[in-house]
Predict the 3D structure of the following.
Amino acid sequence: MKHFTRRSFSSLATKGILGSALLGNLPMANAFTLSDKNKKLGIALVGLGSYSTYQLAPSLQETEHCYLAGIVTGTKEKESIWKEKYNIPKQSIYNYDNFDAIVKNDTIDIVYVALPNSMHADFCIRAAKAGKHVICEKPMAVSVAECDAIINACNENNVKLSVGYRMQSDPYTKEVKKFVKEKTFGDVLFVSSDAGYISKGNPDQWRLNKKLSGGGALMNMGVYAIQTSIYGTGQNPISVSAQEFSTRPDYFKDTDETITAQFKFENGAVAHMMTSHNANGNRLKVHCSDGWFQLDPAHSYGPISGITSNGNILEFPHKRQQALQMDDFSKHILTGSKNIAPGEMGKRDMIIVEAIYKSISEGGKEQKLSLGNLGVVS
Amino acid sequence: MKHFTRRSFSSLATKGILGSALLGNLPMANAFTLSDKNKKLGIALVGLGSYSTYQLAPSLQETEHCYLAGIVTGTKEKESIWKEKYNIPKQSIYNYDNFDAIVKNDTIDIVYVALPNSMHADFCIRAAKAGKHVICEKPMAVSVAECDAIINACNENNVKLSVGYRMQSDPYTKEVKKFVKEKTFGDVLFVSSDAGYISKGNPDQWRLNKKLSGGGALMNMGVYAIQTSIYGTGQNPISVSAQEFSTRPDYFKDTDETITAQFKFENGAVAHMMTSHNANGNRLKVHCSDGWFQLDPAHSYGPISGITSNGNILEFPHKRQQALQMDDFSKHILTGSKNIAPGEMGKRDMIIVEAIYKSISEGGKEQKLSLGNLGVVS
């Protein structure tokens, strides 16, 4: 439930979407009719790199419950380009220095932080302090401690938080979660996940700079394989072991190139994953007691492709995952519907990332995990 | 090249297949015309379990260069059944005690040992001492030392030796080896292999009895994943690490249930594999610098199914792999053609198996391997 602060109250009042919710303990869901275009939430994108440019901004042209309301960029020349292209009001354009003034901007409800990983915590916390709901791009941060700081800041400021796990909103993922939950193919026994691509030609990119990225393939693509391992089994792992492979140290000077990891689960399932900046991989295969299902590709921008052991081809209408994701989060804010990619999920994955790095540093030693149901959204 | 002993000489003379090879240093290939039905080599199957019953004997009805000439069984009642079904002469039926008398049987050229793993070495060595060529079912033995003993016995007795790696004769495997060798999709970067099935209902089978099997999933199905990892990269691994998972210790009392392993290769490729008696898996996926190819299923009795990143479906006429395998070995004996599954290949895989078990016993520690090109057949 959203708690009303002075700021959120006036923000909602401005949009004319205050209703009976204020009259008692009714959930916010009762206050809104989602079909009302006026109730679209305003999103400000922080960081106008390729992800914002080619994924988030185009997706925001397709969203039903939110729209591109502002930008935050460190590159002066991008301001006018975006202003013109997306008709963004001058007063909703910020740079990294004056960003905190966003607190006064009632047209911005959500701040989407799409900066290099090491900058996530700073801007998510500043956004929360400005009373804005937060979407933090994956990986959530560069350490568990930073994840905690983001979660705490959002809690303290009564704003909602989600992680940019677009796959959680994809219908193929939802189908996988349904198969697992309903035991459509029986008990999950073994999950195999790959997530990688071949990086070349640009050794100076931020993703290969540990100070900015916090890590290489694991922090970037590995998080997808961790996610698929978990929604492929429906549980958090109880232990992990991992190995690192380095074959192009001249290019990957600072960050991990290829990592394999193995997971144990309480329900007896076993998973192994591969992530790489030096090899392609885009697959989830789940072997169950009575059959199997597979996504390949499993986590690209789509359309995803799926098949099951009974010969069924999975087919769902394709929509930009980021549009679905931002709409899901907006609905969560507006109606109190489930937050399907909460901060706890991002923190959990970062706990696993840190355990993987620790296992590697200890020669592949198994690391016990005590995650309980942290971040598991059924 | 086959060296002529008194026994092999008289055996060939009996069949009327001696030719110019004896006149000088000409390879045996010159001595034979393979289309001549009379030159079929006689095979004796040792151990009439399900593999001999449902795979080897039916396959020997389809072979061109060998035929089912004898049986060796420890089960009296099987003698008459097989004698009648396959028209086997009484004098070519042996039990485990009188097996060594096979030395006098000129109708038997090859002995195929399809017994539980722990009995391979004994019977392969006895077959070699009887002057018979040897096919040893996979895994070759329960230790590297036993593999060496088999190889030595075959060398000392001038007989040929191959391991029952039927997949080496399958056209899909040959296509994979061609892709790798010709770099059809560029350099191999990452290989993922799974080989497993769900064992249930019979905890007392020999495969789950370590004294007879030498190990569980790894010794049985794992060898396929080791093989695909190697022909998927075209090289032997230079190191391996591994993990074991036990979720049904009540059923798998004595042998490994699920094992994952990771390989490094000299050429920079990385591979990971899974083998299990508690989960299905039957796949080889090879990611290269310019594309990928996949077999799924990759090592069942067929037909195998393959696809490549350019959308090509691999399609080869299906023939029983065991028939192809026994014909390949017979041609090797008859013509000096390449032995595509030599004893050294079986030994190499057992070195890897032992390294995997060692890694597991050392908490997943990487084990260096110094295999050179041992057992690599291009």
Notes: The first strand of chain A starts at residue 41 and ends at 46.
